[in-house]
């Protein structure tokens, strides 16, 4: 049963009403505060008066209908759906919530965090988190499960993966205290798998992705299976089990094609491209990155990632004319990306670094990498990229006989590897 | 000359240590995980 005090507080703050506005002529300010914070149980007459002032009917006859609509909406937040449908269903439920006291209210409010994240409205998601934080002390185990999970989602979006995993673990601890459908548990396991992969906890990433995969396979959910296979592909590559990595990524590719999901196909090509690059097969690597840039449906992030990879591959095999071609393409993509997405910055540094190298502008290259790129990577804690570019700089110094500087940047690369491998 | 030799030696020591740790992973920025939100937003939204 929903705690009436939490409900009143939620509705009052939503309507931007002060405690004074609501309490006036009904109860004292301190008594309203006690009601809202569940320190006392008010009489039904007082609750009635407060709800009337808030414009809410104390009528739970629509409870079952609201619950059913909510259930439908929640599932829309976990599968591929049209944005318009998600918003329309949200508005429909919100109208019902505003005029009815229902048990579904808190869960609905908590799911709004996920809703705002899916819409890309991160500020609104944070406002909702702060608003709910005040009443989180009244949450039951089911509420807490979603509360932790969506807070973790928020941290994941902000790329704060350590805090994200902290929240996901709290959500996981709630699993044995609540009853959830199998696919909901699998979704959390998938989420934990992705986050461990981001944190480079490879064995954990494999474990959780396999657990999620098992459920998604049983349900023939090809898209979710493909996502798990991608995580497995990335993880096996990191421990150099290339055959298993290729097998998983090929399965992801196949499932993406089967479900006609270009996003999956493009993501898999990028990971296959990266795999062959680290395996020392530039020809095969280039083939996969080319697949991405030749696809009209690829998003800017896909194109930038692939173009930057192609620059690197062509530069490494000393095919400088092709490296040049993709530097130009990358610069054009960054120019076009008027929104200046945070990820653009990363590719701006990569493309510019190779631009200076290809132009033989070595002084500019050194200055740019030392003064801009390396500090940026340190700030982002992107140690994988840091190791690559500090090595590139060290190799450059070594080539010109500047051994002291070379050793300094090999040391930076070494430090970056230690961060990745937690030595 | 002495300085140059010691420079080379420091470089060699550091490089071999670096090569040793490099065996663990040679990752670059090209790797990309799917989203935790599962929904691939922009293709549909």
From TrEMBL, chain A:
<dbReference type="GO" id="GO:0003677">
    <property type="term" value="F:DNA binding"/>
</dbReference>
<keyword id="KW-0802">TPR repeat</keyword>
<dbReference type="Pfam" id="PF01381">
    <property type="entry name" value="HTH_3"/>
</dbReference>
<dbReference type="InterPro" id="IPR019734">
    <property type="entry name" value="TPR_rpt"/>
</dbReference>
<dbReference type="InterPro" id="IPR011990">
    <property type="entry name" value="TPR-like_helical_dom_sf"/>
</dbReference>
<protein>
    <submittedName>
        <fullName>Helix-turn-helix domain-containing protein</fullName>
    </submittedName>
</protein>
<dbReference type="InterPro" id="IPR010982">
    <property type="entry name" value="Lambda_DNA-bd_dom_sf"/>
</dbReference>
<dbReference type="Pfam" id="PF13181">
    <property type="entry name" value="TPR_8"/>
</dbReference>
<dbReference type="InterPro" id="IPR001387">
    <property type="entry name" value="Cro/C1-type_HTH"/>
</dbReference>
<feature type="repeat" description="TPR">
    <location>
        <begin position="266"/>
        <end position="299"/>
    </location>
</feature>
<feature type="domain" description="HTH cro/C1-type">
    <location>
        <begin position="8"/>
        <end position="61"/>
    </location>
</feature>
UniProtKB/TrEMBL annotation, chain B:
<protein>
    <recommendedName>
        <fullName>Phr family secreted Rap phosphatase inhibitor</fullName>
    </recommendedName>
</protein>
């Amino acid at each position: 049963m929903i705690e009436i005090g939490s409900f009143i507080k939620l509705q009052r703050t939503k309507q931007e009403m002060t405690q004074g506005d609501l309490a006036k002529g009904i109860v004292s300010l301190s008594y309203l505060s006690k009601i809202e914070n569940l320190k006392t149980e008010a009489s039904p007459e007082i609750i009635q008066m407060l709800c009337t002032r808030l414009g809410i009917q104390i009528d739970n006859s629509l409870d079952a209908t609201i619950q059913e609509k909510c259930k439908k909406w929640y599932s829309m937040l976990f599968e591929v759906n049209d944005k318009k449908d998600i918003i329309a269903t949200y508005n429909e439920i919100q109208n019902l919530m505003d005029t009815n006291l229902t048990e579904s209210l808190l869960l609905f409010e908590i799911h709004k965090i996920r809703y705002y994240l899916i819409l890309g409205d991160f500020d609104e998601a944070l406002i909702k988190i702060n608003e709910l934080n005040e009443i989180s002390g009244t949450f039951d185990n089911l509420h807490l499960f979603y509360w932790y999970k969506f807070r973790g989602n928020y941290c994941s979006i902000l790329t704060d993966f350590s805090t994200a995993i902290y929240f996901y673990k709290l959500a996981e601890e709630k699993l044995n205290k609540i009853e959830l459908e199998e696919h909901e548990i699998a979704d959390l396991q998938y989420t934990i798998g992705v986050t461990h992969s981001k944190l480079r906890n490879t064995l954990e990433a494999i474990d959780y992705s396999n657990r999620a995969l098992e459920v998604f396979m049983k349900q023939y959910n090809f898209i979710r299976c493909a996502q798990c296979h991608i995580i497995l592909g990335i993880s096996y590559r990191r421990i150099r089990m290339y055959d298993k990595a290729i097998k998983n990524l090929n399965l992801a590719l196949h499932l993406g094609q089967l479900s006609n999901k270009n996003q999956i196909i493009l993501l898999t090509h990028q990971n296959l491209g990266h795999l062959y690059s680290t395996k020392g097969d530039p020809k095969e690597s280039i083939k996969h990155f080319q697949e991405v840039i030749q696809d009209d449906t690829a998003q800017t992030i896909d194109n930038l990632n692939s173009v930057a990879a192609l620059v690197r591959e062509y530069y490494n095999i000393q095919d400088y004319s092709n490296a040049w071609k993709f530097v130009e393409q990358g610069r054009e993509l960054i120019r076009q990306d008027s929104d200046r997405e945070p990820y653009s910055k990363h590719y701006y540094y990569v493309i510019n670094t190779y631009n200076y190298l290809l132009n033989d502008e070595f002084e500019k290259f050194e200055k740019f990498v030392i003064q801009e790129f390396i500090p940026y990577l340190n700030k982002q804690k992107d140690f994988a990229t840091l190791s690559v570019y500090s090595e590139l700089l060290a190799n450059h110094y070594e080539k010109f006989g500047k051994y002291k500087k070379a050793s300094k940047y090999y040391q930076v690369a070494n430090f970056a590897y230690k961060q990745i491998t937690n030595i | 000359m002495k300085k140059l030799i010691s420079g080379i030696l420091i470089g060699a020591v550091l490089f071999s240590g670096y090569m040793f740790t490099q065996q663990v992973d040679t990752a670059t920025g090209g790797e990309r995980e799917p989203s935790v939100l599962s929904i691939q937003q922009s293709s549909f939204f």
